[in-house]
Amino acid sequence: MGAETELKLAINEEYVAHFRQLSLLSNKASKYEGKQQLINHYYDTADQQLHKQCVALRTRLKGDGCWLQTLKTRGSSVDGLSVRGEWEWPLSSSELDFTYLTTEVWPEALRNINPADLQVTLSTNFERESWHVTLVNGAVIEIALDIGAILAGGAQQPISEVELELKQGSVDDLKGLAHEIMKFIQLEPCDLSKAERGYLLLNIGNSCEVNE
């Protein structure tokens, strides 16, 4: 199991170009990782049993043409800062592989689900541009700029977000870097994940939080 700690911030599209020009993204302490298109399909049962248990199960097509399966479990999110359990497995195709969902990772409340009952409930399609920033104390934080759309139930909603994910260091390092960025760019903490926003498009959102 990996514990993912990240800070999610909404950015107005008019500030995106200015964000890309921030000096902290172009100095020697920053490594540009490039852009890639990410297509994600989220699975659930017809009665949204996974969503009710605050579980997100998705497959992702990455820019390199490879598929990845990800399971995220119940976590907490306050002022955009979230911490939750996360597992990832490579896939040989776009098909969901239920054999990875062992009793070690799969919540007990969902163990009676038949794999055939899991269908794509919503999707996201966005371009991710990312940087790895090393702070003076050695902390490492990935900064991602996501621009695209959420698709659910025939409706869609734009994605315009900045995510800061802690790779090495403390939560204070994460908050400190966010504070530094917000001196130059207007950003708003966002506690709703892309998946949760998709469920809201389906009119079944609730207070549960499992981030993208």
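^ that was protein a. below is b, sequence first then the tokens
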Amino acid sequence: MNQPITTPPDDPGDHIARPAPVPPPAGLYIHVPFCRAKCPYCDFYSVTDPRSIPDYIEALLLELQLYRRKVPRADSIYFGGGTPSVLAPGQVARVLDGLRACFPVTPDAETTLEVNPGTVTRSTLTAYHKAGIGRLNIGLQSLDDRTLNFLGRIHTAGKGIDTYRWAREAGFDNVGLDLIYGVPGQTLDRWEKVLARVVGLAPDHLSCYTLTMEPGTEMTARVENGHIQPLGEGTVGDWFVFTSAYLNANGYRQYEISNFARCARGDAADRRSRHNRKYWTFAPYLGFGPAAHSFLDNTRWWNHRSLDTYLADLKAGRRPVADRETLTREQQIIEFVYLGLRQTDGIDTAAFRSRFDEPFSEYAAPQLSQLAREGLVEQPPGRIRLTRQGMRFLESVVGRLLS
């Protein structure tokens, strides 16, 4: 433990109260649990019947009131799903008004809406922009129609490109695209062609996820029944390294395992997702809507994963919380290390010592030198971070560091 620091008796600073650290601004997340169709690989909570959308909006506005002023300020708002673009622009505007009425939202807040091609038009995107959405995240997933068909998407590659161009025409100057790779039947050559077409569009942000077989999904059932054969773990790992190198070489700086921000020469704009970075840095965030998660003062809680239960609780004036947990010191350390290593900046060792009152080496020293010799971690002054190869083996590296 750190020893207390003493000052001479005549030092006037001995009697000055130190101000408490100012908490970082919070993020506000809205889970929109509606989709036109359920993708076979997705395990996020959603329903495909839109008739409850009006009731959901009213319940959501009630939930916001139940958390009124719970955080001193917020500088990001994120509509995720589901498919938030099934909401009409007027409904999005109502929610934004409700958020600003209940929470001190900074004037420069990053306000993001996820949209899927096939659910928007040029005019609706223009209306979203006028309603106060400043950043779009488009669920493109691929620009290869065979891959899109396998993934069960409702749009074609052409419709995805149209959606991106409409977004630019609507006035959005901050547009991100989501992509999925490592799909059965996909080849590295086809994936490289998708990346080349995407880079040619010049989006501001890219999220590139490997396809994972989540328990309980239709796609996992097809794997278990032998109807499809996933790509091997080693192959997907090779593709991850290729993707990182390709995008970094083409003007996209990787800042988290799956996330890349465009960094044009001479451009000082920070295109990293302000909201998503809160999840990786222990910043506070409040989540609203069915299945949404919140985190504040080392306590995490989450709403019922049921639209019916969510609506019933709020109709009765109750917060729709399913459960909560307060992280132990050991859980905080595990998350600090895991989330820190997901980011290319890595772990700030001074921040670790400040938070946990002991040096990171107490936990990691036995393994750090060996991991460095294996080319999996590097140790610039004051930091521990993964190499590109190390990111490929994140789970294993974290396990070894904490062992």
